[in-house]
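Summary for the funding panel

The consortium committed to producing paired sequence-structure records for every protein in the target list. Below we show the first two records in order, beginning with the earlier of the two.
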Amino acid sequence: MFTPPAAYTLVATDLDGTLLRSDDTVSPRSRAALARAASAGAQHLIVTGRPVPGIRALLADLGYTGLVVCGQGAQVYDAGSARMLSSVALDRELADAALGKIEAEVGQVFAAVDQDGIDGRTLIEPGYRMPHPSLPAQRAGRRADLWAAPVIKVLIRHPELTDDELAATARRAVGELASVTMAGPGTVELAPYGVDKGTGISRAAGLLGRDLAGAVAFGDMPNDLPMFLRTGHRVAMGNAHAELRAAADEITLSNEDDGVAVVLERLFA
């Protein structure tokens, strides 16, 4: 049976499907609950699959000045100083080879990449459709153009396979060329091998001097599982994928119903 610590010192939240509502906003109730946790001494840590350029406007709106784990754990960014503290790039030759192995199994896939750096671009090849239309992206003329600059991850879509089917097949096909995860509807991703939200949150917690045993983590998709495995208390959203629900200590309400706030209000009553 899970025994909670006397006090939580870290609140780790995913963004899409977790802290964010479907309109990419954080509700007043969730903002108030995070402020309550902060007043009790708990540090808020955002842990997201989005790259740094895709969240800077949101961080400014939240007034967030702490560390952020971005790009499925590949990046640790200091929002207060606008500095990248660490970043792990995905070898572009390995990424291209991984795509070839996947297509040998399932036929043509459509790909996009998130470039490295605080000003990196998201490039999409012809046929790829962004799962979040609000996120900025630029079209590439052909796949070879995706590799013009260092990248932290590759996003893939298949015209017929479900996300679960594509992720499972990709994982078998690429082996140790890359880490494969599912981050949301229509979002199967390839990251540097061995890099995930678990490695990212461990790096950030070390920089903050916080023990992950005293962390409560919130998530909704399988890409949050490595973070769950390293944190003290794991909370799956009501809208979470079955794989994450099975690994959770508790299940809260959905992101649309302020599920994060409901738990924080109880823990920091």
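The next record, for a separate protein in the list, is shown here:
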Amino acid sequence: MILQTRGLCKRFGGVHVARNIDFGIEAGEIHCLIGPNGAGKSSLFRLILGAHQPDSGTILFKDEDVTRLPPFARIRKGMSVKFQVPGIFKDLSVRQNLVISFQHHLHGHDLEATIQRVVAFAGLEGLEGKAAGTLSHGRQQWLEIGMAVGVEPSLLLLDEPTAGMSPEETRQTGEMLRVLNAQGVTILAVEHDMSFVQQIADRVTVLHFGEIFAQGSVQEIISHPGVADIYLGASDD
């Protein structure tokens, strides 16, 4: 396991967003985290990253306890993150965004080579000088994915990476993530789009009311009657 949580709990006031979560991601897999609105997906994501501190429980990354480490320290150990809303500098060029992302990690030839590699990976050739805010929504998302992977993380965290994308952009994003995964990057994606989940996921975890409701392969989750119930709002009768 590259990442494990043990007995992870978090509440905000009277709301439990994480209840005794025992969760793990195997090195080299693409793992999707799904569930209805309010299930606790984003809260678990932020606990893993360190944006929230748990009330109790443990988070292990590469067998090291990182439970109390701040986000920047986890990133230095090999995590990287892309949130749902693009965090690019819209008035700066594509190239300037990449330089800002990589300048504390890379210098000289290594920096230039990484920028060229990421531009090609994200399909942004010829757009390096354009202001990032003028790119299409899909390309802005791809730029930020490139910004997240340029430092070659071990674990990439993606919060709804295809939000607002067209079906074709969504498919292309899935292909990009498959390429990254083949290069050795483990991926955890919070996602709503089940066709995208089917395209990329090796395993899926379903959250409901801050608890793990089901885990398994894509096919096991699709065929799980309880999962359909919570998504469609069926009663418990």
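Regarding this second record: The beta strands are 3-12, 15-25, 30-34, 56-61, 64-65, 79-82, 155-159, 186-190, 203-208, 211-216. The chain has a mean pLDDT of 89.
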